[in-house]
Amino acid sequence: MAGYTRKDEESATLRSDELKRKKRIKLAIYIAIFAVFQVIVITVFGLVVMRAKSPKLRLSNDIEFQNLKVVNSGQSSPSFDMSFSTQVRVKNSNFGPYKFDNTTAIFTYGGATIGQVVIPKGKAGLKSTKKINVVVNLSSSQLPNTANLGSELTSGTLTLSSTAKMTGKVELMLIMKKKKSANMDCTITMDVNEKKLRSLECK
């Protein structure tokens, strides 16, 4: 009986050791799978979430004229004065807010500045668009040369340009801040007879 007992104990010990070995192997496999999963998650997180993209800065095509005065006395002294309300939109596609500084948008005709508007500093939330209401005042009195203005006003259209460079920082996971700028380059074509926007193209 003692011999059988000893053999039973040895067999039980072997089974126990085998079970422990299998458990250690399973544990090692689980740890390896978890480690690989963590590497994949961190890699995807780094490539997708933590990658800061440049926000987009655009004028809205929702332009409402408050005042538009056009004088076209032949080719001698044509002029215009206008004011309109619109929106400036800051589109942030990042997984973190974009905090931007005060920005000046310049409006030009034929390369000459005819007015500007200040876009106040603010914040565009993660994956969202910040809409900022502004009122723009423009005047041809600042033009050094109005040689081509008369013919354009006679045709009933007025083509302007608007440019701006916005600077700011994208905040990621509350621990990282990356400097990013947003550029605006828009061409605005207005119908001066109907006092409405004809077209707006932004790059």
TrEMBL record:
Keywords: Membrane, Transmembrane, Transmembrane helix. The lineage of its organism: Eukaryota, Viridiplantae, Streptophyta, Embryophyta, Tracheophyta. This is Late embryogenesis abundant protein. Residues 88-187 form the Late embryogenesis abundant protein LEA-2 subgroup domain. The keyword Membrane applies. The chain crosses the membrane at residues 27-50. It comes from the Eukaryota. The keyword Transmembrane applies.
